[in-house]
Amino acid sequence: MKRILLLNGPNLNRLGLREPHIYGSVTLNELELQLKTIASSKNIELVCYQSNHEGGLIDQIHEAEVKADGIIINPGAFTHYSYAIRDAIASIAKPVIEVHISNVHAREEFRHTSVIAPVTVGQIVGLGLYGYELALLALVEKLGEEEKDEQN
Question: Which residue positions does UniProt flag as site: Transition state stabilizer (predicted)?
Fold first, then answer.
């Protein structure tokens, strides 16, 4: 069974409470349960982790080298300045998809740049929580393609 790691960065533990006009009313726990159900239907184990601390996210990325087949990450504010998370992602040979609930390109100027995006296989922004589902489905597809390539 393939394993995907879902990482959520700072303040995402506040989903459902924090700025619901931007992030909605669904909690992180509810989102994770929904995604685990979808993953299970695809014969995927989804492991979820949230931290408000950069080092915790970096440790999870490093461990994913041997414990996961791919990563979905919403780095939160770390998106815009964490070269440490960027370098951790670059240091592993696993596909990573970056997700943002809001359209970061339509918000404050500082949110327009992601230092994470260049080391990911893709980025999904502005589609609300549905972006996580799309990232999951895209990563499942990517892992299937890699498996076929290894068999050939």
Answer: 18
Q: Hey, what amino acid is at 78?
A: F
98-115 core/surface letters (b: 16 or more CB in 10 A; e: else): bbbbbebeeeeeebeebb
Annotated binding site: 74, 80, 87, 101-102, 111
2-151 placed in CATH 3.40.50.9100: yes
Pairing mode of beta strands 122-125, 70-74: unpaired
Query: Residue 29, SS3?
Result: helix
Q: Which residues contact 125 (CB under 8 A, 6 or more apart)?
A: 99, 100, 102, 103, 104, 105, 131
Domain spans in the chain, listed from the N-terminal domain onward: 2-151
Largest CA distance in the chain: 48
pLDDT in tens, 54-112: 999 999 999 999 999 999 999 999 999 999 999 999 999 999 999 999 887 777 786 76
φ, ψ of residue 11 in degrees (nearest 5)? 75, -5
Catalytic residue ranges: 23, 100
Render pLDDT for 103-116 as a digit per residue (tens, 0 to 9): 877 777 867 689 99
